[in-house]
Specification:
Structural class of chain A: alpha+beta
Chains: A alpha+beta (about 220), B mainly alpha (about 475), C mainly alpha (about 50)
Shape of chain A: elongated
Strand content of chain A: 5-15%
Number of strands of chain C: 0
Number of domains of chain A: 1
CATH architecture of chain A: Orthogonal Bundle
Shape of chain C: rod-shaped
Order of helices and strands of chain C: HHH
Order of helices and strands of chain A: HHEEHEEHHH
Number of helices of chain A: 6
Largest sheet of chain C: none
Largest sheet of chain A: 2 strands, antiparallel
Radius of gyration of chain A: 23 Å
Strand content of chain C: under 5%
Distance between the termini of chain A: 79 Å
Bound molecules: protoporphyrin IX containing FE, fe (ii) ion
Oligomer: heterotrimer
Radius of gyration of chain C: 18 Å
Helix content of chain C: 55-70%
Number of helices of chain C: 3
Chain lengths: ~220, ~475, ~50
């Protein structure tokens, strides 16, 4: 056979496949190391010294968190502000805050939150996204959810709702009672507060900025 | 599935896997229907089988039946490819029962226990609460052991017999497939780290290892069902492997836009995943081109009639070529650029893509392999369509396509109202979800889901009866 | 010539991310270019086989 083309040669493609796969895998592993370093949790010292971490340490629950436009990066980012009380305290130690977060993260899995809600946008689509739930205006002192539960702070209102969700229906589609205890609810709220402080590159866009655009009569 | 015509034990074992897979497929659809009803009537089974539980069962059953059918497919094709009986078949049979029993226990616990206290025992014994891989840790470990046993058999057989290109690809691919599962087995307090590794399992399965798997299965199908040339088919297979892994591995970046991971993933994720549809186009062309070529050649030889020796199976293989391209390629590309994904991320649109992609790429070809097994088990030379097999293909494919369209329309409402207009808050979510297009979209999804399920009943009827049908050439 | 990081933590990949497409074009090239070398080798092999 004269001039057999390399393009129709199995060995050429086999070797190319091996190279491409191997190299892409190596790049992925390298990127994973790089990313892992960047998304490891910060510490209490980082927070005190104002070091920005993509994922702050658990003691972020001692601070006020807001979500603001960063002109340099072109999207909103969480901003960690002054001290703020969380269940009456703003001096949780690294250990205490870490335990709360641990309890909350375990709780989020043990109750299958992700199978109705999205967390960081992943999960199910039957209920609202929880990425920035802590910052939702509905839970603020002027918000409808806080008013409904009759509590005076955001964290207490959220904890109350989590324990007795079907007592506080907002729509025909309700959250079921998942047997969440008072301690677990506190952990879950800490977990939500912590999640809202994660730098998600501007997701969700315009969170909580627009109210009543649709039904704004 | 009668097995008196099977001289290979490996193929008998394959029929067990296929049978179990078909049953779980039915369970998947039933729980999907429950979840879909709850979208329309939220009170349905409230605090009895909540949406979360129905959904867990729906998508876990999905993964489980597909894994069973994949293992079955490998046991089926191994003797044909290697020319020898599968090594370690006794272990294979034992592992089947272990696997099936473990699945039953996991399902019963999901259904009856549902949730647990916020501690490690729940993670070990009830649920891990991570979408698709909720299976508790004891089951994770069991699954790894069982799958390693399967891979042991595959390697032993591949090395002892003739390692064709198809078997070589499968050996490498199945090892990666199992290895990746390990990334989903640990607990961390850091939700960003959690989701980073969670995607290793989900994305590297469906957009890398499973795609390569179906490439290999399609290659086998083309050789056995229409007599395509092995050399050509295997060349395409290697090209597909290069393109699939080349784009799919780093394409994982399209899940790292918003979970706390650095901004450089925007570029990597966007542009590698944007190439992912290319191999799917290649696979599509390959299957249809080979079919045309073989048919044309037969025609020139003066042979009348079709070259296809298994009509229903080949129909599902063709549906796979379309479904993979549309569901993964087109619907996937829709939302893979960060500029778009910022608004579509985690909406009904994602669900539209998830349905058409999983169905189109995997359910189709695995149903096709079940027909291949029915043909072999009954010693049939040419398996033809029956009324039921045609009804099943139309209703299942049409039903899923209908659900996808309904979800895509609902997705636009979610994207525009919930996300773009209202900024994704609690109130915004419910504004989106009470819009007329959303409500009607959910109605249509349910209707089309029922069509899908009726199609499934035809499929089962056909599975149980077609072997005895006189229309086939024996 | 070199852009400041827009990302919050400097890193090698962040540095390659100099503007639209720089990072991804670099990675794609690095993956595809060696295939020319594989091509040449295989071409030689096929010619020698004859
Ligand atoms: C009777 C037909 C079906 C019905 C009624 C149905 C219904 C549903 C529902 C209600 C959900 C939850 C979506 C949400 O969280 O909002 C879901 C999720 C899902 N279903 Fe189905 N389904 C059906 C068939 C299928 C089939 C045939 C497949 C694939 C072969 C499939 C794959 C999936 C996947 C992958 C998800 C998760 C989607 C995601 O997270 O984006 N379903 N289904
Ligand atoms: C057969 C192959 C594929 C399957 C089975 C599949 C399945 C899925 C599923 C089930 C999800 C939702 C995951 C969740 O529940 O959170 C998803 C998400 C996604 N898929 Fe695919 N996919 C496939 C191929 C592709 C391809 C080829 C692309 C791009 C070209 C793509 C792009 C995406 C994107 C961007 C998301 C994220 C959606 C979001 O942000 O909510 N997929 N895929
Ligand atoms: Fe993906």
């Amino acid at each position: 056979m004269a001039n057999k083309s390399v393009w129709s040669d199995n060995r050429f493609w086999q070797r190319s496949a091996a190279w491409v796969t191997g190299f892409a895998a190596i790049l992925l592993i390298w990127l994973t190391f790089d990313t892992s370093g960047q998304i490891s949790m910060g510490s209490d010292a980082d927070l005190k010294n104002g070091v920005t971490k993509r994922v702050p340490g658990p003691t972020v629950i001692n601070y006020k968190i807001t979500y603001e436009m960063d002109t340099k990066r072109g999207h909103e980012v969480p901003v960690i502000g002054a001290k703020e009380k969380f269940f009456g305290r703003d001096d949780y130690s690294e250990k205490e805050a870490g335990d709360l977060l641990h309890l909350g993260k375990l709780g989020s899995q043990a109750k299958n939150c992700m199978d109705c809600h999205t967390l960081l946008g992943n999960g199910a689509y039957y209920a609202p996204d929880l990425t920035k739930a802590w910052l939702d205006p509905a839970w603020e002192s002027t918000g409808s959810m806080q008013a409904m539960t009759g509590k005076n702070t955001k964290e207490e209102a959220m904890a109350e709702f989590l324990q007795f969700p079907s007592k506080y229906p907002t729509h025909a589609r309700m959250m079921p009672n998942l047997g969440i205890t008072a301690a677990e609810a506190k952990g879950l709220v800490a977990f939500l507060k912590h999640m809202s402080s994660i730098d998600t590159n501007g997701f969700p866009r315009n969170f909580g900025k627009i109210q009543g655009a649709l039904n704004g009569k | 599935m009668a097995s008196n015509h099977l001289k290979w034990e490996s193929k008998q074992l394959a029929t067990w896997y296929f049978t179990f897979a078909a049953i779980i497929f039915g369970a998947q659809l039933l729980f999907g229907l429950i979840a879909a009803i709850q979208y329309v009537m939220p009170g349905f089974l409230f605090e009895i089988v909540d949406f979360s539980i129905a959904r867990i069962l729906h998508i876990n059953a999905l993964v489980v039946w597909m894994v069973f059918a994949m293992i079955g497919s490998v046991y089926w094709l191994l003797p044909d490819e290697t020319g020898i009986e599968t090594v370690g078949i006794k272990i294979g049979k034992l592992l089947f029962w272990v696997f099936a029993a473990a699945i039953v226990v996991v399902v019963l616990v999901y259904l009856l226990v549902q949730v647990g206290p916020a501690d490690e025992t729940t993670i070990w014994f009830i649920t891990e609460g991570r979408e698709y891989i909720e299976a508790p840790r004891w089951a994770d470990i069991g699954i790894v052991v069982v799958v390693l046993g399967f891979i042991g058999n595959l390697y032993a057989t591949g090395m002892k017999g003739k390692p064709t290109g198809i078997v070589t690809v499968l050996m490498a691919d199945m090892l990666a497939f199992a290895g990746i599962y390990l990334a989903g087995m640990f607990f961390t307090d850091n939700i960003s780290v959690d989701q980073f590794w969670w995607w290793w399992v989900i994305h590297l399965w469906v957009e890398a290892t499973w795609e390569v798997f179906v490439g290999a299965i399609a290659a086998y199908g083309l050789i056995t069902m229409i007599g395509a040339h092995r050399k050509v088919v295997e060349m395409w297979l290697w090209i597909e492997v290069a393109m699939l892994f080349g784009s799919g591995i780093l394409g994982m970046g399209h899940h790292y836009f918003w979970i706390g991971t650095p901004e450089y993933w925007w570029e990597i994720g966007a542009l590698f995943s944007a190439l992912e549809p290319l191999p799917l186009v290649a696979m599509f062309i390959h299957v249809l081109y080979d079919w045309g070529k073989q048919q044309g050649a037969a025609h020139q030889r003066g042979e009348e009639g079709s070259v296809i020796t298994n009509k229903p199976a080949f129909t599902w293989f063709i549906l796979q070529a379309f479904g993979n391209f549309l569901g993964a390629g087109v619907w996937g590309f829709f939302h893979t650029l960060p500029q778009v994904n910022l608004y579509t991320h985690g909406t009904q649109f994602t669900s539209a893509h998830g349905h058409l992609a999983f169905f189109g790429a995997y359910a189709t070809i695995l149903i096709g392999m079940m027909y291949v097994a029915i043909q072999g088990s009954n010693g049939i030379k040419v398996l033809k369509h029956t009324k039921s097999s045609i009804a099943a293909a139309w209703m299942i494919a049409g039903g899923v396509m209908g659900m996808t369209v309904a979800l895509t329309i609902a997705g636009y409402v979610d994207v525009i109202v919930t996300r773009a207009q209202m900024g994704a808050t609690w109130a915004g979510y419910f504004d989106g979800h009470s819009g007329m297009w959303m409500l009607q979209g959910m109605d249509w999804r349910l209707i089309m889901g029922v069509v899908t399920f009726l199609g499934f009943l035809f499929l089962i009827k056909d599975f149980l009866s077609t072997g005895k049908n006189a229309v086939h050439i024996r | 010539m070199f852009e400041p990081f827009t990302d919050i933590v400097p890193s090698f990949f962040g540095w390659l991310n100099q503007g639209p497409l720089t990072l991804t074009i670099f990675l794609h090239s690095f993956i595809v270019l060696p295939m020319f070398w594989i091509y040449k080798q295989e071409k030689n092999r096929l010619e020698n086989e004859k």
